[in-house]
Amino acid sequence: MMKDEEELVTEHFAGWASTYEEDIAKMVERDWGVKYEDFVKLIMEPCKLRLCMRILDAATGTGLISISIARMLSGNCKILGIDITDAMLDKAKANIRAESLGDAISLKKASAENIPSDDNTYDLVVCSLALHHMNVRRALREFVRVLKPGGRIVVADVCAPEGWRTLYGKVGVAIYRFLFMRKKESKAEAKSELYTRKEWEAMVAEFGGTESQSNEFFNKNNEWAPGVIITSWIQN
Ligand SMILES: C[S@@+](CC[C@H](N)C(=O)[O-])C[C@H]1O[C@@H](n2cnc3c(N)ncnc32)[C@H](O)[C@@H]1O
What we know:
By secondary structure, this protein is α/β, with parallel strands linked by helices. The chain has helices spanning about 5-15, 20-30, 35-45, 65-70, 85-100, 135-145, 165-180, 185-190, 195-205, and strands at about 55-60, 80-85, 105-110, 120-130, 145-160, 210-215, 225-235. The protein has one domain: Vaccinia Virus protein VP39 (Rossmann fold). Helix content is about 45%, strand content about 25%. Helix 1 (about 5-15) crosses helix 8 (about 185-190). The longest helix has 15 residues, at about 165-180.
């Protein structure tokens, strides 16, 4: 991500941090028809959690995914949560303290495109609702670098409906981007690059992932609205 793009994203999330948790739960249910608790369970399932796992939560935000994992493992794990937005990390710190999970989860301000960890460190890299704000290939290269061979990557991200790749869809998306990029509050989202399920599957194959699985949810009332995809794979 270029410096000005990173600033746009951090500004967006700095402004959203105080209401993020309430808002995201409502959005997931309203836009994708899944209760937030069920959405988190769907992310947990392909993580294949085991005691003592080392886990990277890339773009941890307010720490919701790290906390769910640590709770499921009764604190018997080592999670590093990284994020580029101070206000989100401050909330994460408070949430982790409130749950007494400080021994299991540590936090660092860092970009998922430049992860401050050695090669072959983690059994699992999880990244929820954040990759569309990044240079996806650069971040995935980092996930692969820090993951142990045979480790898992689990990504949940906003995704594009196949219709966006038709001529009609391309024109519509271009107009949408033009209109929304002009509004400061929606610029960070409008700028983001969204992939279809097929494009995600091709990307996983490009990175040498195996045993990939995807689950996607779209807005039943609007076939043009972005959906969400949960994709997981094993990295050899
Ligand atoms: C929608 S929130 C998702 C937070 C959390 N993963 C969740 O599921 O609730 C997106 C987060 O991605 C973070 N983010 C965006 N680009 C990032 C990057 N390059 N590296 C690390 N974090 C990033 C933002 O600061 C924000 O906290």
